[in-house]
Amino acid sequence: MFTFTYYVSVLTVIIGGSAQFYTYDVINPAQTTLIKWLNQTYSSRGELKTEAELNMVWSMIVSCVAIGAIFGALSTKPLSERLGRRNGLIFNGIFNVIGALLEYLAKPLSSPEILVIGRIILGVNMGLTSGLVPMYLMEITPTKYRGSAGTCHMVAVAFSDWFSMLLALPEVFGGDETWPIAFGFPGITAFLLCCILPFCPESPKFSLLIKQDRVATLNDIGRLVDVHEGQQMYEDLIREKTNSDTNENISVSYLFTSKELRMPLIICVWVMVAQQFTGAAAIFAYSTNMFLNAGLEPQIARFSTLGISIIYFLFACSSVHLIERKGRRVLSLFQLSTVTASLTAMSIFTWAQAYYNIKLASYGAIAALLAYMCGYGIGSPIPWMIASEIFPTKYRSSAVTIAISVAWSLVFIISLAYLPFKQWVGVSASYLPFIIVSAISTCFVYFLLPETRNKHTNEIAQDIQLRSDTIRRYSLNILPSVGSSMGISPSNEASEDMRQHLIPRTKSFNSPSTPPYKYSSFAFTPPGETSENFLTKFWGQKR
Does residue 342 have a pLDDT over 90? Predict the structure, then answer.
C-alpha cells in the first residue's frame, strides 16, 4: 500500500499549501479592528479619510487577494512544467512566507500599503496553490485512490476557512494589538513546507511524461507505494504514455482551437463557473447579518458564523469517503441541486421577513443556510480536480491554468459586484443569479459530466465524446433546420482526431541513462523479463 513518505508528502502539501486559503477569510472577522487601525494610521499621517474613502481602502485590501490569485493561476502552467509539481510548490511556499511576513509587519510599520502588497503576494500563492496542489496529490496517487487524494485539498481549504475565522475573532487574535499574529500565521506552515517537501518525491507523471526519465519515475513510485501498487501505477503511466506524445509543447491557446479538446475544456470551465455561482462568497460574507436579523447578540452571531464554517468543514471531510463510493458526478449533482433548493428557500424566507415582517422567516433562512452548507461542503472538492482527471498529462497544466484563472476571476468579480447588486435589488433578489446559474449547471452536469472514478483519461475521453455526440444527434433530430444551417451532421463514431488520441500504440522510449526499449500500453519490460520481476528487482535494490 502507501509508504510513510507518501503520507508525509500529502500532509506537508495540504497543511503548507491547501491550508493557505486561510488568507482569504481571515480578514472578515477582523473587519472592525482593521478599519479602526486604518483610521488611526491615516489620522497620524494628517490624512483625514471619509467613510467612503475608508470603505474604498477596505475594498482594496479585501479584493487584492483575488487579483494576485489570477496572476498566480496564469503562472501554473509554466511553473509546473519548468520546475515540476514538487519544486513549483516549494517556490510557491517562498511566496507565502514573504507575503505573511509583510502582513505581520504592516502594523509595526503603520503601513496599509505593505498590508496590500502582502495580500497580493499571498493571492499569487493561492492562485498557484489552486492548481499545483490537486495536480501533485492526484499524480502521486494510484488511480483507484485518486479522488480521495484530490479531495484532501478541499478538506484542508474548508479547515482553513473556519480556523481563520477562529483566530481572527477579537476574543482570540483579532484584537487591536494582536491581529498581526492572525495575519502572519500562514507563514509558519509555509516555512515548514519549504523545509520538508524537498525530501519528498516528485510526481511520477511529471518524471516520465514530461522529463522522459524512466529511472527517476521508478524511484518516485518506489518511494510512494509498495511493489504491487507500484507495478499497476507504472503500467497506468505507460498506457497514458502510449496514447500521447508528450514531446510536444502544448500552449494554452491550443485547447481553444483543438476540436477534440473543446468539450473537455467546456466541462472543466463550466463546473468551475458553477462552483463560484453557488454564492459561497456571499453566504460566508453575510451569514453574520442573517444571525443578527434572527435576533442573536453580535458575539453569538459571530460564533454562529464560526459554527456554520465548522459544519462546512465536517461535510467536506465526508466527501473524502463518499467520492470513491458514490463518484464525482453524483456528489456534484447532489451539491448543485441542494444549493439551488437552499438558495431558493433563503430568497423566499428573506423576502417574507423583509416585506411581511414574519419573525419565523428568519429562522427558516437560518435552516436553509445550514442545509446550504451541508450540500456545498460535500461537493466542493469536485471542480478543483476535474481538469486534472479528464485531460491527459500533456494538456493538464494548460487546462488547470484556464480553469483556475476562470475561478479566481469570478471570485474577484463576484466579491466586488455582489454588495452593490444587493443594495440595488434587495437581499432576497440578490440570490437569483446564483439560483439560475446553479439550476442550469445541474442540468449541464447531468447530461455532460462523465463519471471519472477509477477511469483512465482515454476512457473518460470516450465517455465525453459519446455524450457530446448523443446530444448533437438529439439536437439535430429536434432542430434539423438549425443543424443544417450550422453544417453539423450526426455521427455514430468519434472524430478521426479523437480516435487517434484513443487508439493504443507501441513506441520506442529513450532515456538518457538506459538503452531504448519497446513498451506497450500495459507494461514496460526489458527483453527477457516480465514486468513484475523487473520492477520487484529494481525497487528491491533501491531499498
Answer: yes
